[in-house]
Amino acid sequence: MNRRKTPSKEKILAILKSQGDAISHETITNQITDINRATIYRILNQFCEDGIAHRIIAENGKQFFALCKTCEVEEHHHNHLHFQCNTCEKVECFESEINISLPEGYAIENFNGLINGYCNTCAPA
Amino acid sequence: MNRRKTPSKEKILAILKSQGDAISHETITNQITDINRATIYRILNQFCEDGIAHRIIAENGKQFFALCKTCEVEEHHHNHLHFQCNTCEKVECFESEINISLPEGYAIENFNGLINGYCNTCAPA
DNA sequence: GTATTATTGCAACATAGTCGCAATAGTATT
DNA sequence: AATACTATTGCGACTATGTTGCAATAATAC
Questions:
Q1: Does residue A1 lie within any of the structural domains?
Q2: pTM of the predicted model as reported, rounded to 2 decimal places
Q3: With a 7 Å cutoff on the CB, does B107 touch strand D?
């Protein structure tokens, strides 16, 4: 299954790049009207498979996607934390990696860590 | 809104107690047939509101619920990690709390951390 | 230019969870 | 024990998010 370069993929990639935060499928459809729902989902899934983006599961179960900026190609891990603001609902990646230690005999494959709270613009004084 | 003690709540609480792991709505309906879907959801939500249980969001967006064993009543926090096995799909609570440091001006309200991988019985040798 | 097959759009589907409403059943008061 | 109050339940319908099968289209290699 070789990947092909298509306008749809480039548009979605451009949106992901332009956005500092992690974005949901909804955010993308708000900016693109000429690409089918299913296609967007398929492209996002493909990006995740290919290590171009990573997926974050929000508190409500919704998926968010962010470009893998800090991920080395050789060592692809995502054990950094994410933050979602309860007010403005934006999702950010936090830089700092967290240390995960597992019990004997356990093996890690992926980590999804999400903090919910209020960001610096939405936090009550 | 005062809470009332009902057979439905007691049954679900009993299941949560009997289960060592965090369980999904599905697991409950497999063990109870005479309680309505919607009722189970409502009771689980109520348990979360009341601090009796906490909610874990799995990789696929599904909700899991676990009794709050280690949570002090006064200081109710859930910044411990959870683990879901990709093979047997069970969800466990890990004891160790993790340290979360936020950027200036941010406030935390909740944390949901899930490790995906293979548990000690399912891990490949 | 042609053949191959990845990608797309469409529609239908799947699943998880929620909500409004009327009926039922805890709880407190008398 | 009967009554009033209202939390809870069951039912059905609904919403939202994401997936899938299939035929048509288009990117790539030759």
A1: no
A2: 0.90
A3: no
